C-alpha cells in the first residue's frame, strides 16, 4: 500500500505535490487516498469515491457522491447544525467528476454536527425537462437522515435558505442477535397502523405519545390481540405542513397527516421520534423494531415510490427536481409532469438511475433496519414506462423480485394507481409479489350488506381468489375489508354516505363507492336493534376475514369499534378523527375478545392457512374433498342471483403443514334478513360438530373458548340467524 505525507497548499482548490519521504512513522498508517490534496477556505479535501452514493464516513473524513446527467457544475454546501448560513461552499473541481457523478472527500469535519446539501448549475429549460437553479440548496436523495423539521408540527422557518437538511446516520446501533423473522407469509395476521395515530390520544396512556418509542409501550397489547405483523403507514421524512390550511369552520389546522408525500426515501421521520429534536430518530426506530422482533412481530413498511413532495411545476424544489428533473420524473413531451399518482408528479421508476435508487433504498432498510417487508403504494406506477405506458416486463419489479438482499422480504403491491391502471390479479409478480386484494374488500362488503349476485364471487374470495391468483397461490392475496383509506369497519355499518365536510373540500374528496350500509340509521343512534345489528355485522366481517385463505389484514382500531364519524378520507387530520381512542377497548371489550379469539383460532388450524390452492378433490382418501361448498342443503350450493347464503367445509385431513392433521371446519354465512336452517354434512370416525362462533348470539356468547367448544344441539342441522355467521369445528 503506497503511503506518503502530502503538503497542504495555500492556493484554493489547487492540487498539492506529494512528498515521497516519510517524515513521521505514524504517517505510514495513512492511505494516500485518504489524505487531502486540495483546500478551500481552510477546508481540506480530495477527489472522492463515486460509490456509494450519498455521504459516508471514511478515515478522517466524509465521502460525498451525487449524480446528475445534465448538470454543468456542482457545489457542496456545508453547515453547522442549525446554522443560518453555511460555513463553506466547495465547488467540485472538474477532475472530481466521474461520468455523471460528482465525488469528494472532505476532511476533519464534525460529523455529529454536520448538515450538507448541494447547488446544481445547469440549464433552466422546462420544455427540455431541465429545471436547474443554483440559487437553491438541494437535499441529498441518498441522505440517511434529515434535519430542519425535527419536531412534529413545529412551525418551520419559511425564510430558511435550506429547510430539509441532509445529515449522516451512523452504524453504531447494537442489534444484539436480532434479525428479520422470516415467517411464512401464510402465517401472518397483519395490523395496519399509523405511528402517530396509534398512541397520540390521551387515552393511550403512554409516554411520548405519537412516536416510535410509544409503539414499544403497546407491544404487550399487540401480542394479546395476536397479530404477528404490523404494517406502518409512511415513516419516511415528509412535510406535515404541505398543503396545510385552516379549517374554515373550526379554525383547526389541516395538515398532511398520513404522510404519502415523501421528501426523502432513506430517512425516518424525525417528527415521529421522541428523540427527533436530538437527531436520534434512527436509533429510536431501530430500538422499536428490535423490540417488536423480540416479541415475535414482523414490521412491514408502506413505501411511496410513485411520487415525491415536490409536486408539479408549481411545487417547491427540494431535491430531485433540482438535481436531475428529467431523470427522476415522468415528463410529457412539453416538459410537464405526468400525474399518475394524483399528487402532481410521477417518479420515473424504470429509468435505470431511479431504479437503482429504489433498490438501494430498500436494500438499506432491509439490511440496516431489519425490515421484514414492504407494501408499495400505488404500485401499478412502478410498472409504467417513461412515457406512462404499462410495461409487460417492468425492470424495477423484476429487479425487486430477484434481488438477493430482498430475497426474504415480503413484497406487497397496491396493484392500481390514480391514472386508471388496475392490476389486481394481473400485477407482474415473478413468483414473489403479493397484492392488496381490492376485489376481496369489495365483494365482502357487498355480500355483508345483502347485495344479490355475490355467491360466485364469495366462493372465490374465501379460497384466496384462485380466479385471480391461480398460478400464484392464495398467499398472493392480502385480504382486507378496511384500510386507512376509506371507512373503518364500524363506519362501514353506520353510514351509507361519506361525511368529509371536516376536510374543507365540500365533501368532494374521498371515494363514493363505499359499499357500506348503515343498518337503518345514518351515524350514531340509540336504537338498540340497530346497534346490535351493527355489532353483529362487524363480527361477521371479522369472522369471514379470519377464516379466508390468503393473508388477513386488520385496520388499527377495528378490533375495538373505532369510528371516524363517517369521514372516509382523514388524510389531513391530526386530531381524534385519526387518533385511536383507547377508551374504546373498555367500551367494546367483547369485540376485542372476539377478534382475539378468531386470531387464535386461525393460528390453531393450519387448514385455514394453505400456501396452495384447493383441488376440490379427496387426494388423501379421507372421504371428503379438501374444500366443499354447501347451501341450506348439504352438498348443494345455491349460486343463483337471489341467493344470499352459503357454507363451506374444510377437511382437516388435507391440512398441508407437515404431517399435522387438523379438525374439520364448517362455516355458514347467512345474509338474509331471516334465519335459515342449514343441513350439516355428516362426520365420520365418531367426530361431532362443535360451535366456535355464532354471531347471532348475545355479545358474551358469540364466541366460545378455543378447544372447549360446546357440541351443537343437533348433529344434522343448525339454525343460522338473520345476517349472521356460524363457525363449527368437527372433532
TrEMBL record:
Keyword Transit peptide annotated: yes
UniProt superkingdom: Bacteria
Q: Identify the CDD domains for this entry.
A: AmyAc_Glg_debranch, E_set_GDE_N
Gene Ontology molecular function terms on file: amylo-alpha-1,6-glucosidase activity
Task: Name the UniProt key words of this record, in alphabetical order.
Answer: Glycosidase, Hydrolase, Transit peptide
One Pfam annotation reads: Alpha-amylase
Q: Which BP terms in the Gene Ontology apply to this protein?
A: glycogen catabolic process
By its UniProt entry, which InterPro entries does this protein fall under?
Answer: GH, GH13_cat_dom, Glyco_hydro_13_N, Glyco_hydro_b, Glycogen_debranch_GlgX, Ig-like_fold, Ig_E-set
Glycosyl hydrolase family 13 catalytic domain sequence ranges? 192-602
Recorded family membership? Belongs to the glycosyl hydrolase 13 family.
Q: What is this protein called?
A: Glycogen operon protein GlgX homolog
Q: Which organism is it from?
A: Persicitalea jodogahamensis
Starting at the broadest rank, the lineage of the source organism is: Bacteria, Pseudomonadati, Bacteroidota, Cytophagia, Cytophagales
Gene, per the UniProt record:
glgX
Amino acid at each position: 500500500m503506497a503511503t506518503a505525507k502530502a503538503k497542504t497548499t495555500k492556493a484554493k482548490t489547487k492540487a498539492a505535490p506529494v512528498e515521497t519521504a516519510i517524515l513521521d512513522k505514524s504517517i505510514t498508517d495513512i492511505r494516500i487516498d485518504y489524505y487531502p490534496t486540495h483546500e478551500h477556505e481552510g477546508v481540506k479535501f480530495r477527489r472522492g469515491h463515486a460509490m456509494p452514493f450519498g455521504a459516508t464516513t471514511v478515515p478522517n473524513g466524509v465521502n460525498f457522491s451525487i449524480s446528475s446527467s445534465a448538470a454543468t457544475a456542482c457545489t457542496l454546501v456545508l453547515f453547522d447544525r442549525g446554522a443560518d448560513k453555511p460555513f463553506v461552499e466547495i465547488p467540485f473541481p472538474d477532475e472530481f467528476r466521474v461520468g455523471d457523478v460528482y465525488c469528494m472527500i472532505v476532511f476533519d469535519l464534525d460529523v455529529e454536527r454536520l448538515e450538507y446539501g448541494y447547488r446544481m448549475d445547469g440549464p433552466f429549460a422546462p420544455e427540455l425537462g431541465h429545471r436547474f437553479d443554483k440559487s437553491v440548496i438541494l437535499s441529498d436523495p441518498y441522505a440517511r437522515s434529515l434535519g430542519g423539521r425535527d419536531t412534529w408540527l413545529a412551525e418551520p422557518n419559511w425564510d430558511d435558505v435550506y429547510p430539509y437538511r441532509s445529515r449522516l446516520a451512523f452504524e453504531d446501533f447494537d442489534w444484539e442477535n436480532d434479525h428479520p423473522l422470516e415467517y411464512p407469509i401464510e402465517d401472518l395476521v397483519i395490523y395496519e397502523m399509523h405511528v402517530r395515530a396509534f398512541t397520540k390520544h390521551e387515552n393511550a396512556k403512554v409516554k411520548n405519545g405519537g412516536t416510535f418509542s410509544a409503539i414499544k409501550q403497546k407491544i404487550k397489547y399487540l401480542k394479546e390481540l395476536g397479530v404477528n405483523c404490523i404494517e406502518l403507514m409512511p415513516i419516511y421524512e415528509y412535510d406535515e405542513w404541505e398543503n396545510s390550511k385552516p379549517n374554515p369552520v373550526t379554525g383547526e389546522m389541516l395538515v398532511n397527516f398520513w404522510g404519502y408525500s415523501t421528501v426523502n426515501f432513506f430517512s425516518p421521520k424525525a417528527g415521529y421520534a421522541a428523540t427527533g429534536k436530538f437527531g436520534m430518530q434512527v436509533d429510536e426506530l431501530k430500538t422499536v423494531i428490535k423490540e417488536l422482533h423480540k416479541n415475535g412481530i414482523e414490521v412491514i413498511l408502506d413505501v411511496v415510490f410513485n411520487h415525491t413532495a415536490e409536486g408539479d411545476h408549481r411545487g417547491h424544489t427540494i431535491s430531485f427536481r433540482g438535481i436531475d428533473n428529467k431523470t427522476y420524473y415522468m415528463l410529457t413531451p412539453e416538459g410537464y409532469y405526468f400525474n399518475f399518482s394524483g399528487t402532481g408528479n410521477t417518479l420515473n421508476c424504470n429509468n435505470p438511475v431511479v431504479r437503482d435508487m429504489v433498490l438501494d433504498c430498500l436494500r438499506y432498510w432491509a439490511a440496516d433496519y431489519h425490515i421484514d417487508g414492504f407494501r408499495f403504494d400505488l404500485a401499478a406506477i412502478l410498472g409504467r414506462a417513461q412515457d406512462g405506458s404499462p410495461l409487460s416486463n417492468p425492470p424495477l419489479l423484476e429487479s425487486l423480485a430477484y434481488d438477493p438482499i430482498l430475497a426474504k422480504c415480503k413484497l406487497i403491491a397496491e396493484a392500481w394507481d390514480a391514472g386508471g391502471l388496475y392490476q389486481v390479479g394481473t400485477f407482474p409478480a415473478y413468483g414473489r409479489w403479493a397484492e392488496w386484494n381490492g376485489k376481496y374488500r369489495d365483494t365482502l362488503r357487498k355480500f355483508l350488506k345483502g347485495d344479490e349476485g355475490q355467491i360466485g364471487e364469495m366462493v372465490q374470495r374465501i379460497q384466496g381468489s384462485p380466479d385471480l391468483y391461480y398460478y400464484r397461490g392464495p398467499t398472493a392475496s392480502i385480504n382486507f375489508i378496511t384500510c386507512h383509506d376509506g371507512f373503518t369497519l364500524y363506519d362501514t355499518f353506520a353510514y351509507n354516505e361519506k361525511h368529509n365536510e371536516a376536510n374543507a373540500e365540500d365533501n368532494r374528496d374521498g371515494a363514493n363507492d363505499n359499499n357500506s350500509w348503515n343498518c337503518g340509521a345514518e351515524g350514531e343512534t340509540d336504537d338498540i336493534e340497530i346497534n346490535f345489528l351493527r355489532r353483529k355485522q362487524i363480527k361477521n366481517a371479522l369472522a369471514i376475514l379470519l377464516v379466508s385463505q390468503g393473508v388477513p389484514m386488520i385496520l388499527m382500531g377495528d378490533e375495538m369499534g373505532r369510528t371516524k364519524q363517517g369521514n372516509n378520507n382523514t388524510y389531513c387530520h391530526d386530531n381524534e378523527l385519526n387518533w385511536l381512542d383507547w377508551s374504546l377497548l373498555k367500551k367494546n371489550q367483547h369485540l376485542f375478545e372476539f377478534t382475539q379469539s378468531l386470531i387464535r383460532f386461525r393460528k390453531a388450524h393450519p387448514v385455514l392457512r394453505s400456501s396452495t390452492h384447493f383441488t376440490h378433490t379427496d387426494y388423501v382418501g379421507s372421504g371428503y374433498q379438501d374444500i366443499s361448498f354447501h347451501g341450506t342443503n348439504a352438498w348443494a350450493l345455491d349460486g343463483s342471483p337471489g341467493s344470499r347464503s352459503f357454507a363451506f367445509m374444510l377437511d382437516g385431513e388435507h391440512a398441508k403443514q407437515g404431517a399435522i392433521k387438523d379438525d374439520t371446519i364448517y362455516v355458514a354465512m347467512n345474509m338474509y334478513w331471516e334465519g335459515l336452517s342449514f343441513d350439516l354434512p355428516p362426520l365420520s370416525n365418531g367426530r361431532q360438530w362443535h360451535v366456535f362462533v355464532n354471531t347471532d348470539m348475545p355479545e358474551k356468547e358469540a364466541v366460545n373458548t378455543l378447544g372447549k367448544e360446546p357440541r351443537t344441539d343437533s348433529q344434522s342441522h343448525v339454525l343460522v340467524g338473520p345476517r349472521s355467521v356460524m363457525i363449527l369445528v368437527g372433532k
